[in-house]
Amino acid sequence: MKSKKALLVVDVQNDFCPGGALGVPAGHKIAPVINKYIRIFLKKKSVIFATRDWHPVRTKHFKDFGGLWPVHCIQNTLGAAFHPELKLPKEAILLYKGMNPDKDSYSAFHAEDESGVGLLVWLKRLGIKEIYIAGLATDYCVKYSAIDAIKYGLKVKILIDAVQGVNLKPDDSKDAIEKITKMGAKKIKLTDLTTKGRK
Prior knowledge:
Elements: E1 5-10, H1 31-43, E2 47-53, E3 93-97, H2 119-126, E4 130-136, H3 138-151, E5 155-164, H4 172-182, E6 186-188, H5 190-194
Parallel strand pairs: 1-2, 1-4, 2-3, 4-5, 5-6
Helix pairs in contact: 3-4
């Protein structure tokens, strides 16, 4: 199947939503919006990717081992599962990241499927030139995924109504969006696709 555009859903997992080990405030509220985007992309027969953190028990990503974050998204735990409100289709290509205990692996371009094929290889294989990014968190995995996508020459759209940030500092998400738009990413929202017929 050939496609020029794809939807990338980043880390909408239990541990990144309220009640999780590293809950993003209102993180779960983007799931229904992402579901609407998913339906649009399915209708267009476009590819849908979904990443998730998939950490080992010991990793320098965690505070206990010198990192920034509390323990979260341990492989095969409920916290690492996709949030139940997110309705990924069976056609979605699932990608896992954070398995390397020596790296933070924020970007979706560090993720790979169960057979070890990375996102960039998938994009090239499918002829995808433009990527629409949603998910968690705006100021980390969404930001670094967008930066890498731009560096690899992709057109990038940030779905601003379908992202949410950690905001360790109050303006982190705002600054992240500002940085990636300055690099060339475009901000869009659901009405841009549903009312103008764009995609």
